[in-house]
Amino acid sequence: MTHGKTKGHRLQEELFRWYVTVFRGDNCGGASAAQGLNGLKHHVEVLIRAGWTLQMSADNSLADKAGVDFIWENPSRGWFPLDAKAMGQTSCRLITQVHVGNNNDAGEYKQLRFEDRIAFLQQLVNLARTGQPVSYHCCQPPGLTAMASNQLLDGLKNLRKQLEKSTSCDERLGEWANALGKSIGYLSIQKRGGPSEASKHSAQKLIASAIDAFFGSFFNNNETFASQQMRLQPNLRRSDRLQYLHTGDVIKATVGNAHELVVLSGLAALIKKRFEERYIELVGKHRTAEWLMQRKRTFETKGVELVIHSVLDAFQRQSGVRRTA
Fold first, then answer.
1. Cα distance between residue 157 and residue 107, in whole Å
2. CA gap 110, 270 in Å, rounded
3. pLDDT of residue 26
């Protein structure tokens, strides 16, 4: 995001601080919280005594750039990579997804929902008891300490080589190696100063095409499309690499074979401008048409959101990004 840390990152840090507090023995909440925690806390404490430890990756560490927020490991068993997500999905199936969601009610647990905290502890217990950890003999976990930006790219390339070598030992590592291609491509672009003009132009062209396609159907003198749009509940949640940020009116999208991350602002303003142009054009021909007045009312209700939804769908179809609910 353009303003500070992402919501998922903030919730990831809050989750880890809470975990440390709980297993350091400090007071972690009121009576109702303790009742929900007691059983799971005991199970996790047993695992900790058996050698299991949880560590969080630092910003700009190798693990962070490889899509890993936590390492849950045991010296005699192996390790599990985990990724805390407020939206989207992990980069590959080997990385366990940890859901973190905002608590809309003010209370002692700040912004992270209590049920997500409980679910996280349950995940740790399930992984330790029945999961298949990555063996240290196959592959060492990625580093959790922050690195200089000029070291991260080489570090990721070396990690991918290590994962590819270890595929014969654990085939799951091969999928992770493939997933690192996007991170490596993104860091390569950053190193040379950002996305190419070709990628920016491609993104702008796709946005313009999606907007024109939407209004082409929206302003058709046919009730079907407009009525469908009014019933639609747009889902603007996609992934870390494809999203619309209401703050700053910014769209982020991965473009092209090199997976260049393009960030463009002013999307809502562009949509409103295009609507006005098309509406004024049609008013001259259909000044008193009731259907045209209805289109204006529909657009004023939730038109911008609907068009942004269509733009995100267009990027998703182009890149094959998996839709998230």
1. 44
2. 37
3. 57
**CA distances, 1 to each of 53, 193, 237, 240, 268 (Å):** 31, 18, 14, 9, 17
CA 212 to CA 156: how far, in whole Å? 40
Confidence of residue 241 (pLDDT cuts 50, 70, 90): confident
In angstroms, rounded to a whole number, what is the distance separating the alpha carbons of residues 93 and 198? 32
Residue percentage of the chain with pLDDT more than 70? 88
H helix intervals, 133-196: 149-165, 172-191
Q: Is the pTM of this model over 0.90?
A: no
**Distance between CA atoms of 210 and 216, rounded to whole angstroms?**
10
**Distance separating alpha carbons of residues 253 and 164, to the nearest angstrom:** 28
| Range of weakest confidence among 38-42, 155-159, 304-308, 316-320 | 316-320
Terminal-residue alpha carbon distance, the chain: 20
What is the distance between the alpha carbons of residues 306 and 230, in angstroms, rounded to a whole number? Answer: 9
- Identify the DSSP state of 4: S
Q: What's the token pair of residue 261? A: 């991350």
From 210, 279, 193, select the one nearest 251 (Cα to Cα): 210
Nearest to 96 by CA among 48, 133, 52: 133
- Domain extents in the chain: 7-147, 197-319
